[in-house]
């Protein structure tokens, strides 16, 4: 569950303290500094990064705020357990992409998506506007026009999911979609349906989401969204998705069962 699948570099930070925070953050996420491990002292770290003590302290404060580190009197700066990390922080997500996405990350992402996106699709079916439907159709058109393993296909896929969140009318669902956007794009790139049958399956189920939302069918929208997420997870795991199998109805209520 911890084997690295792929590294997706993100943009570098623009300030010294942000770049030091990014470097240490990536090392923590990659396991070079394990949970409960004390970081090297200030003198060693300032020499390592070529920065001043104030810059280093600002970097540590950033990592403490994001849940990766804690500072203890007479102990030093210690790496916190993974459960304390703020996974909805944009930097923490970006550092996961730098460190290398593993299966655990993908499973966790699928679980939070199953907890949110099927419900967002149901709400979208009740609340969508003509503009929302037009955006969903544009996203489908882009997916159909792009090669399955291209960035354009992944971006079309991402645009569709963000359009569903937007059409839900729920501000929290919109925010979650925007926060995990980079992780979703990386996930879609990793699960690209390169085989012809896989591509047709992906397009079929995404179209079912669009059709159900446009038709105001909340139940069908929920089921189609859940199946899309499960199909992506199957491709991550190297098994072929079924083009016509009905999604498990318990998947939405109990998203943790798929891992």
TrEMBL record:
Q: Tell me which residues make up the HTH gntR-type domain.
A: 14-82
Q: Which InterPro entries match?
A: GntR_C, TF_FadR/GntR_C, Tscrpt_reg_HTH_GntR, WH-like_DNA-bd_sf, WH_DNA-bd_sf
**Which molecular function term from Gene Ontology is one that the record holds?**
DNA-binding transcription factor activity
Compositional bias of type Low complexity: which residue ranges?
239-251
**Chain spans, region Disordered:** 235-259
Keywords attached to this entry? DNA-binding, Transcription, Transcription regulation
PANTHER family in the record: GNTR FAMILY REGULATORY PROTEIN, TRANSCRIPTIONAL REGULATOR, GNTR FAMILY
The molecule here is called: Transcriptional regulator
């Amino acid at each position: 569950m911890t084997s690295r699948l792929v590294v997706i570099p993100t943009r570098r930070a623009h300030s010294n303290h942000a770049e030091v925070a990014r470097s240490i953050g990536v090392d923590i996420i990659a396991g070079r500094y394990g949970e409960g491990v004390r970081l090297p002292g200030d003198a060693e770290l300032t020499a390592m990064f070529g920065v001043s003590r104030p810059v280093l302290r600002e970097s540590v404060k950033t990592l403490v705020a994001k849940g990766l580190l804690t500072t203890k009197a007479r102990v030093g700066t210690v790496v916190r357990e993974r459960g304390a990390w703020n996974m909805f922080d944009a930097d923490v997500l970006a550092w996961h992409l730098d460190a290398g996405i593993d299966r655990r990350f993908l499973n966790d992402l699928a679980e939070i998506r199953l907890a949110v996106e099927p419900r967002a699709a149901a709400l979208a079916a009740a609340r969508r506007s003509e503009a929302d439907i037009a955006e969903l159709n544009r996203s489908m058109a882009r997916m159909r026009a792009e090669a399955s393993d291209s960035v354009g296909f992944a971006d079309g896929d991402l645009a569709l999911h963000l359009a569903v969140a937007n059409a839900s009318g729920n501000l929290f669902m919109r925010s979650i979609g925007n926060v995990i956007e980079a992780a979703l794009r990386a996930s879609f790139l990793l699960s690209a349906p390169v085989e012809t049958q896989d591509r047709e399956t992906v397009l079929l189920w995404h179209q079912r989401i669009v059709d159900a939302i446009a038709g105001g069918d909340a139940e069908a929208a929920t089921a189609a969204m859940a199946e899309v997420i499960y199909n992506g997870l199957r491709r991550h795991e190297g098994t072929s998705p079924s083009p016509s199998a009905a999604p498990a109805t318990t998947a939405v209520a109990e998203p943790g069962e798929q891992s």
